[in-house]
Amino acid sequence: MTDYDITIVGGGPSGIFATFFAGLRNAKVQLIESLPELGGQVMALYPEKTILDVPGFTGIKGRNLVEHLDQQLAEMDVDVKLGETVQNVARIDTDFKIVTNKGITTSKTVIVATGVGAFTPRKLAVDNATDFEGTHLFYSVKDLEHFRDRVVLVAGGGDAAIDEALLLETVASKVYLLHRREQFRALENTVDRLYASNIELITPYLIRALQLTPADQVQVTAKKMRTEAEMTDLVVDDIVVNYGFSAENSVLDEWTVKPTGQRGQVEAQLAGVTDVAGMFAIGDVSTFADKQALIATGFGEAPLAVNAALKYIDPNNRGGMHSTSLKLKH
Predict the structure, then answer these.
(1) DSSP category for residue 292
(2) Are residues 65 and 13 in contact, defined by beta-carbon separation less than 8 angstroms?
(3) Cβ distance 113 to 10 under 8 Å?
(4) What is the tens place of the pLDDT at every residue in 11-53?
(5) Beta 230-236 vs 118-121: how paired, if at all?
(6) Looking at the whole model, is its pTM more than 0.85?
(7) Same fold for the domain at 4-119+245-325 and the one at 123-241?
(8) Which CATH class is domain 123-241?
(9) CA-CA 20 to 30 A from 191: which of 84, 122, 204, 255?
(10) What distance in Å separates the CA atoms of residue 224 and residue 179, rounded to the nearest whole number?
């Protein structure tokens, strides 16, 4: 007998919601997450970041969104396995054999929700940058209180960098935002909020050197782009660099059965359908034409993939009901 109807690999927001919805559909489901806690990239990198693309929540922090998802998931009778890594997925007749570092199970279908996989920040290209990491130099804001009443320089020009600058402005005594271009690569509303804030903009500059001062602050030397001019009078308590992240989603490469993809992403169609029968992909790991890599997108993909998985198991399955007719079992 097959252990599970659906195995969901990856415990980020998309994977959590897919597991919850599978519970609503009375599917026997397991969620496998390699990290010791649910939340994926949101908890690992952006727990303090304000999430703007989830309908119904105004200015919710990443960690709070994950807490809500955890509470929702707790209503379901599902198996959540943390600190467990999927090492291989193979076929047993029409089912899948799921091999992890803790055991072997079987599943009728698999939903891949691994996100971007392992991610590392793009580091500040300054010779002595590592000397400041963890004390004055950070690549994400995990503990907002550390920055209270301090002078902070944020480096970067995308949505994440501006979001962090706006977040830091709520506690820091002063926030600078340094970017190597005059224009910012962010949503229009985010840029509007930046210009309406008290954050001081330093553009177009690039950090070239860091030096610790006798007062345990950091003197920053920045070069103005396309010139030889340097600015050396900027002294701050902390620097937050957000140049983006390099992702490596090589976990699927080791699977015996894996869907077609490239650069760590899986090619998917409507409802997360891949070229492997019974295997689906949702969230940041899946890609298709004109996809927007948003949490809200993953939330929308989750129930479609669950319904498609149950339809694959039983072609006569009539699919998901209207949301108003779904009920929790107590």
Answers:
(1) -
(2) yes
(3) yes
(4) 999 999 999 999 999 999 999 998 888 998 888 777 888 888 8
(5) unpaired
(6) no
(7) yes
(8) alpha beta
(9) 122
(10) 10
Domain formed by 4-119+245-325, architecture: 3-Layer(bba) Sandwich (3.50)
The pair of three-digit structure tokens given for residue 35, joined into one six-digit string = 């990290």
Burial class (CB in 10 A: 0-12, 13-18, 19+), 207: buried
**213-239 core/surface letters (b: 16 or more CB in 10 A; e: else):** eeeebbebbbbeeeeeeeeeebebbbb
For 196, half-sphere exposure in the C-beta direction (CA atoms, 13 angstrom radius) is 6
Give every CB contact of residue 108 below 8 A, 6+ residues apart in sequence: 2, 4, 5, 6, 94, 95, 96, 278, 309, 312, 313
Residue type for 131, please? D
**Mean local confidence (pLDDT), 138-155:** 93
Encode burial over 302-319: b for 16+ CB neighbours within 10 A, e otherwise: bbbbbbbbbbbbeeeeee
Domain boundaries defined on the chain: 4-119+245-325, 123-241
